[in-house]
């Protein structure tokens, strides 16, 4: 993984201190070569361990120009692993938000998530995993967290039901890896398997979304499978003082979501597609973003327009699909997003609040 590519004048640099939003929080951004958060001072630490949507970038079977460019090592086109975020209140205990199929590679690239050199024979700083939906890119990594390592899983009733209905997840023995319910609209202190607080608090709220792709039934070809009742949630992640919103999947923005996000110090938001019909135009799929439960970045009904004018300290697109032109830092779309005050997440990106 590389830090920010060259030639992005507007991107924060390692060690740069930036100020965010009306709350005037100190936000430090560090490159991959910086000290680890374990040594950092007080404040909530966020690390984007995977910034791509399902399939990753490049996707294994994708020959679209962007995946080809990433494979070729083209300047300004950086490879990315699948969607996941790590958060910590103290730089020691970490909570993972979504467990991607790339989790093994992500842990290998993230010292904060590895056993401490002076730790017990079997150990992990990952105290809990919070799931924002049951999509493959968000739950498949749970299978790689077997090996009888205690941690806690937090998810909505719907997502817990999906895990329960798929016995392969029993590789995580619930006696060792307890499954705990996130109440919609509720706020919960996230604890590890033994009930010790991690220092991270999560408020969960339903966002317009969709059931997981593999739960769609072919007998309902015309159904849109949309849902706003907890199949997909957004979360406000807090250390008791500072907070950030993490919404990697969202099908639309309504007045309630705008009101919720007004004044946020930091927002990590669904940046799957730049345009709604992008996959169709690219010739790699038949579905619009809306049909997949993802609003687009651009357009009247897109994220940039829908969240414009709100007082948000720092806004970052995550969960970026391999067809999204913003993945090329030299593209006009990338420039347009930056001009609108948004950042494009990359793997290893750190945010301190
Ligand atoms: C999504 O975000 O829509 C899903 O991850 C798609 C998928 O399961 O591949
Ligand atoms: Mn996804």
List the helices and strands and how they pair.
Blueprint: E1 16-20, E2 25-29, E3 45-50, H1 65-72, E4 84-88, E5 94-97, H2 103-108, E6 126-130, H3 136-139, E7 152-155, H4 157-165, E8 179-181, E9 187-191, E10 197-206, E11 209-210, E12 226-227, E13 233-238, E14 243-247, H5 255-261, E15 267-270, H6 278-282, H7 303-306, E16 315-318, H8 332-339, E17 342-344, E18 349-352
The chain binds D-malate (MLT) and manganese (II) ion.
Mind explaining what this structure looks like?
There is one protein chain. With 353 residues, the chain is α/β, with parallel strands linked by helices. The chain has a single domain (18-212, 222-352), classed as Ribonuclease Z/Hydroxyacylglutathione hydrolase-like (Metallo-beta-lactamase, Chain A), CATH 3.60.15.10. Helices cover 14% and strands 23% of the residues. The chain is built from eight helices and 18 strands. The chain has helices spanning 65-72, 103-108, 136-139, 157-165, 255-261, 278-282, 303-306, 332-339; strands spanning 16-20, 25-29, 45-50, 84-88, 94-97, 126-130, 152-155, 179-181, 187-191, 197-206, 209-210, 226-227, 233-238, 243-247, 267-270, 315-318, 342-344, 349-352. The strands form four sheets. A seven-stranded mixed sheet has the order 8-7-6-5-4-3-18. Strands 9-10-13-14-15-16-17 form a seven-stranded mixed sheet. It has a two-stranded antiparallel ribbon with strand order 1-2. The longest helix has 9 residues, at 157-165. The chain is globular, with a radius of gyration of 19 Å. Mean pLDDT is 89; it is low at 1-40. The chain binds D-malate and manganese (II) ion. Residues 53-54, 135-137, 213, 249, 292-293 line the site of D-malate.
């Amino acid at each position: 993984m590389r830090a920010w590519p060259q030639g992005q004048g507007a991107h924060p640099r390692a060690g740069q201190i930036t100020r965010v939003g009306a709350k005037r929080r100190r936000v430090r951004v560090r490159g991959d070569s910086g000290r680890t958060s374990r040594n950092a001072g007080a404040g909530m630490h966020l690390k984007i361990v995977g910034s791509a949507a399902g399939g990753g970038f490049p996707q294994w079977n994708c020959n679209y120009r962007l995946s080809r460019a990433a494979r070729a090592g083209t300047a300004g086109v950086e490879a990315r692993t699948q969607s996941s975020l790590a958060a910590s209140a103290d730089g020691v205990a970490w909570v993972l938000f979504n467990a991607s199929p790339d989790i093994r590679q992500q842990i290998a690239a993230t010292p904060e998530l590895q056993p401490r050199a002076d730790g017990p024979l079997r150990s992990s700083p990952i105290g809990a995993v919070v799931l924002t939906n049951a999509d493959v890119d968000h739950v498949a990594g749970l299978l790689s967290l077997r090996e009888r390592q205690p941690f806690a899983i937090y998810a909505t009733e719907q997502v817990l039901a999906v895990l329960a209905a798929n016995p392969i997840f029993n590789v995580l023995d619930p006696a060792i890896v307890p499954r705990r319910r996130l109440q919609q609209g509720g706020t919960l202190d996230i604890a590890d398997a033994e009930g010790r607080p991690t220092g991270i608090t999560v408020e969960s709220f339903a966002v317009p979304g969709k059931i997981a792709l593999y739960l769609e039934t072919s007998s309902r070809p015309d159904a849109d499978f949309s849902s706003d009742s907890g199949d997909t949630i957004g979360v406000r992640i807090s250390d008791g003082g500072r907070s950030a919103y993490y919404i990697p999947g969202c099908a639309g923005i309504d007045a309630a979501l705008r009101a919720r996000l007004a004044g946020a110090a930091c927002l990590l938001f669904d940046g799957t597609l730049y345009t709604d019909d992008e996959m169709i135009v690219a010739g790699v799929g038949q579905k619009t973003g809306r049909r997949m439960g993802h609003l687009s970045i651009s357009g009247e009904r897109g994220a940039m327009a829908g969240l414009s004018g709100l007082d948000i300290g720092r806004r970052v697109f995550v969960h970026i699909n391999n067809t999204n032109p913003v993945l090329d830092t030299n593209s006009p779309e990338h420039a347009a997003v930056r001009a609108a005050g948004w950042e494009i997440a990359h793997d290893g990106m750190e945010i301190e609040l």
